């Protein structure tokens, strides 16, 4: 009887203790469930109490350790994001991030000022914002890739360097557009380039005048000595050669400085391109039978320079394409090659007078092309082709 009573009491106590333990485990599971829900909602501030006799104490302490680590990492990321946002907002380069649906997901202050006069643009369609921008800049941004574009303003022209890249954010493809205003830098570089040009001209003059002075001295001595007079013809020929070189050197610079106003006349693209094709091989494409009003001699010089540059870039002649396209407000001509292309640094300075990467170059080819196109009321744009090479686009008004 006593044994049965003791057994009954033991079972009762075990049952009560088991129920208590079950309740503690259930409470622990509920608190762990709440903690995991907080994780799901990116809330890492929740902590779980873990008494010494708690059967889930080890799991709760592990949860608290993970929560501390995640909270610290999130704070570090947040601080870095704040630093990055501060840098992007203060940079003079316009930065726009566009998602696959053409919605702007990020823009800095420079981008808002450039594209919307300071108004908020995040969440808007990028194409809608670009429709409010002047045509040359809008077309250049829509074209993508790297390029330089000059935009006329009320006071002066502004030059921009554009870069467009595909980036992935949260496994989704986005487009990152960077637009850098080059005008102040170009003006600073232009002063430096003019100084370099003056030093170059001075150097060439000295290199010609000094030998000529010496040759005149030799001619005077030969004139005085009958036995040396046979050398006079050679001396005079050398003097004429040096003067001819100097004349050609100075003429190349003078041509850029005294570009006359274009004398526009009706011209068929096919006739103009045929003249250039006689000098350099290339492929023609598009509406070459269209007529356009331009200065034939000046535009011929532009095309000669561009096609010659394409050949010197190492491009195969079959890969050099001159394409003509009619647009509502005028004509577009593109000269594309598959040569070495231009680095970003070279593209930034390509339109500067006297800037060149060629050992024997004068640095006037592209600058002269730009001057002629602008004198016709048109625009010239350089673009780096994604697959290699360069595309030069000319727009001429109707």
List keywords for this structure.
10-stranded mixed β-sheet; two-stranded antiparallel ribbon; 11 helices; 52% helix; 20% strand
Whole-angstrom Rg: 37 Å
Give the strand order of the largest sheet, numbering strands 1, 2, ... along the chain: 2-1-5-4-3-11-12-10-9-7
| Overall form | elongated
Portion in helices = 40-55%
Instruction: Determine the structural class based on helices, strands and strand pairing.
Output: alpha+beta
CA-CA gap between termini? 118 Å
Q: Uncertain regions: pLDDT < 50 for 5+ in a row?
A: none
Question: Assembly type of the shown chains?
Answer: single chain
Fold and architecture overview:
With 398 residues, this protein is α+β, with helices and mostly antiparallel strands. Helix content is 52%, strand content 20%. The strands form two sheets. The protein has a ten-stranded mixed sheet, sandwiched between helices. A two-stranded antiparallel ribbon has the order 6-8. The mean pLDDT is 79.
């Amino acid at each position: 009887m006593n044994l049965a009573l003791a057994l009954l009491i033991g079972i009762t106590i075990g049952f009560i203790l088991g129920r208590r333990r079950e309740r503690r485990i259930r409470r622990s599971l509920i608190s762990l469930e709440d903690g995991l829900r907080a994780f799901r909602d990116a809330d890492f501030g929740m902590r779980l109490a873990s008494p010494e006799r708690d059967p889930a104490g080890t799991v709760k302490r592990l949860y608290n350790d993970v929560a501390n680590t995640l909270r610290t990492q999130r704070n570090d990321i947040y601080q870095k994001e704040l630093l990055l946002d501060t840098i992007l907002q203060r940079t003079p380069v316009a930065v726009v991030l566009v998602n696959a649906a053409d919605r702007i997901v990020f823009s800095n202050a420079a981008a808002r000022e450039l594209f919307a006069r300071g108004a908020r643009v995040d969440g808007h369609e990028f194409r809608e914002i670009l429709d409010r921008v002047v045509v040359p800049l809008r077309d250049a941004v829509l074209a993508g890739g790297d390029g330089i574009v000059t935009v006329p303003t009320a006071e002066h022209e502004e030059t921009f360097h554009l870069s467009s890249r595909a980036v992935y954010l949260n496994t989704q493809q986005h487009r990152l557009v960077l637009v850098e205003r080059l005008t102040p830098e170009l003006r600073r570089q232009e002063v430096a380039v003019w100084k370099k040009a003056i030093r170059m001209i001075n150097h060439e003059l000295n290199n010609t005048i000094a030998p000529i002075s010496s040759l005149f001295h030799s001619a005077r001595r030969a004139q005085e000595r009958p036995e040396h007079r046979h050398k006079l013809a050679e001396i005079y020929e050398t003097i004429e050669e040096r003067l001819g070189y100097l004349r050609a050197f100075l003429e190349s610079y003078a041509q850029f400085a005294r570009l006359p106003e274009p004398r526009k006349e009706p011209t068929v693209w096919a006739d103009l391109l045929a003249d250039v094709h006689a000098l350099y091989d290339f492929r023609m494409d598009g509406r070459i039978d269209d007529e356009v009003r331009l200065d034939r001699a000046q535009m011929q010089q532009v095309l000669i320079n561009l096609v010659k540059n394409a050949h010197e870039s190492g491009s195969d002649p079959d890969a050099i394409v001159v394409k003509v396209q009619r647009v509502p407000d005028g004509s577009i001509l593109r000269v594309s090659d598959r040569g070495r292309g231009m680095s970003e640094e070279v593209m930034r300075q390509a339109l500067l007078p006297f800037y060149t990467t060629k050992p024997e170059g004068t640095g006037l080819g592209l600058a002269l092309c730009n001057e002629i196109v602008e004198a016709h009321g048109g625009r010239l744009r350089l673009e780096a082709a994604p697959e290699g090479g360069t595309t030069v686009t000319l727009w001429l008004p109707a």
